[in-house]
Amino acid sequence: MRVDFHTHIIPEDLPNLAEKFQGDRWPTLQRTCTCGANIMVAGKVFREVTDQVWDPQKRIHDMERENVDMQVLSPIPVTFSYWAPPKEAEVLARIQNDFIAETVKQYPNRFAGLGTVPLQDTETAIREMDRCMHELGLRGIEIGTNVNGKNLDDPSLIEFFEMSEKWGVPLFVHPWETLGRDRITRHNLMYTVGMPSETALAGASLILGGVLDKFPKLKICLSHGGGSFPFILPRLDKGWKVWPHLRLIEQPPSYYAKSLYFDALVNDPTNIQYLVDRFGHDKVLMGSDYPFLLREVPPGDTIDQTLTVTEEQKRAMLGENALRFLNMK
Fold this sequence. Notes:
By secondary structure, the protein is of the alpha/beta class. The protein has helices spanning 17-20, 56-65, 86-106, 122-134, 158-167, 189-208, 211-214, 229-242, 253-257, 269-279, 301-304, 311-325; strands spanning 3-9, 28-33, 36-41, 44-50, 70-75, 111-115, 140-144, 171-174, 220-222, 261-263, 284-285.
């Protein structure tokens, strides 16, 4: 069974919250034709999309053509809206979570869902996570790599991670609002350099800030193969060793990194093998970033091309690991 862990979706009838709440940072959907639209932010085109991003039938057609049995649906990160007042952000989160849950309900053998929560307010985030997991039947929560510039080890987020561990909620960490944005405006470097660097910062913060030490049963997957995190992990170990006065954790970072999961969107079989060697094949989940331009086509192709792993390991990475991560049979 092939499970595409990393795919994004948005409601076709997304309401115009920019008008409702009088703010230009809200993402809106502006139709350009019967099969396409622009995601608009502050009156500018943020991203051009096709009906693949909202139409489950179109997605299923693509899945059948590309040999994918199930997609895990998650919101588009621009909709996190951590910058907004919590009550307003909760409105958008609930709209998306309801839409994802309804899509899964209509096609339970084709889709599983991840929700989103307003992380700028812990109480609101926990309340919506509770609803996602215990009322809507979603399988986990997608979160951003930072919350208004605060790294994921910020004290304000501790209670959220505590409840995530208590309820056994899998977390998918996706980059957004990347660091160094003023230096990565050309060449689409935000996507090719900024996002991998942002994900590395999130992974390092979770470890060095003691989040994974405090909550060892947390299930966390870093997107895009963890970005640059796997490659700089030895350097994080070196820093931990030479600066003992800065330590908040008893063991070196690589000890805690063993608990992390990574999607397989790394574009090269050599990088798949690197993830397998460093973290184990059971921590790698096939993910394509469907339906966006940088996605892997067909999903799982890089794993298929990794000739140095066994067929059993490939099967695990192509689907079994994702189901286990999401606590699904």
